[in-house]
Amino acid sequence: MNLDIAGKLFPDPLTMLVQLTATAFLLYWFKRFLWKPTLSFLEKRAEYAERQLKDADEANLTAKALASEAESKLVAAAHEAMQLVERGKEEGQRVKEKLTADGKREADLKLQAAIREITYQRQQMDDSIQSEIVDVALLAAQKLIEGRVDEDSDRALIEKFMKDVRS
Questions:
Q1: For the chain, which end, N or C, has fewer CB atoms within 10 Å of the first or last residue's CB respectively?
Q2: How far apart are CA 58 and CA 156, in angstroms?
Q3: CA distance 88 to 82
Q4: Residue 161 above 80 pLDDT?
């Protein structure tokens, strides 16, 4: 077995030169034709990614601003609703008090009218009763004393007697 280890470890200088020349040629052509388009593509891709991130940040800020505005509007609407409820309660209380006052005033007026009516009827009854008493007394006196005194003076005397009895 005859192995040439040195030949296997170190390549032939001509092969090495051809390999290096081919690699240099490929690097030259890569740099000349592919390097600028590749860099341009990568820069455009980076700009696109940055633009997307910037747009996303702006959209996020806009969304936060809109959310904050919506929350403040919600708080304002809730506050306004509470005020409307309070105004409704106050209006209801005012209406209740007005209706109560009107009802009380009307009841007082009816009570006063009823009292006046009762007083008037009582006065009428008292006058009627007094007149009937006078008539009955006159009739009784006339029957007792027929012919002694005239009717007008008897009536005046009985009315005076009735007034004295009342006082």
A1: N
A2: 115
A3: 10
A4: no
First to last CA, the chain: 171
pLDDT tier for residue 142 given thresholds of 50, 70 and 90: low
Q: Report which residue type is found at 75.
A: V
C-beta of residue 159 within 8 angstroms of C-beta of residue 142: no
CA distance 133 to 18: 164
Q: Where are the domains of the chain?
A: 11-121
CA distance 160 to 141: 15
The confidence score (pLDDT) of residue 98 equals: 95
In order of 5, 84, 125, the CA distances from 113 in angstroms are 142, 42, 18
Task: Please give the distance of CA 45 from its chain centroid, rounded to a whole number.
Answer: 55
